[in-house]
Amino acid sequence: MTATTAGYADVNGLHLYHEVHGDRGTPLVLLHGGMLTIDLSFAGLIPGLAQRHRVVAVELQGHGRTADVDRPITPANSAGDVVALLDHLGIERAHVLGHSMGGAVALELAVSHPDRVLSVVPCSASVRPDGMHEDFLDPQKMATSTRMPTEQDLADFTEAYRRLSPHPEHFEEFLASLSASQADLVGWSDEELAGITAPVLLVQGDHDFTTVEHAALVLRLIPGSQLAVLPGTTHMQVTRRADLLLPLLAAFLGDR
Fold first, then answer.
1. How do residues 151-163 score in pLDDT, each as one tens digit?
2. Does the global pTM surpass 0.90?
């Protein structure tokens, strides 16, 4: 997976790493989940997406090649970074697909920066803490739950951080701060969600961290939104199901 261009943008005190894949079609921003990177989240999707879109893949604060700074990692802060990156790249509006933490950033963009988004695709995102499955909230259940990242996933997180991060020695501290904040679970009010005007496609696995019942609630709260539940799919697998996601995205994004 070779980027058309790759580099850094100095925005909001961050040295923000991003890649651009393809040079045709409308811009599509990809935002990974917590602890992840562009490759770990989107390696299987980018080649197909880049045939139809100018794909801008971002590594958010503290993730991948983007160093952490002394600032909480929140959807609002990260959304501000994405807007600044769009300004840096000369992009007025873009589609935004985000997974998990990145899905919360996509929703924040739809709520707070509606003039910058063409559409949003929040994957495995919740709009309030009670949207999470009970396995995610109970440490004893979490330890044995088949919804959680596998040992291989955890090994991949660790390897990618230590290989890519400007400060690989900070892995344990970064992990602790990310786990403690849970900022992407705080959510939005019903009124904020009802005010979203961008087209929204909600995506999640049927064996996700977020419950299908919660996804149905979000579907009701966001006017005109659509929902796709991927069968036989865990939280970590959602963006890896290119076989299911690429046709869904082609139909949803269309000629927007």
1. 898 899 999 999 9
2. yes
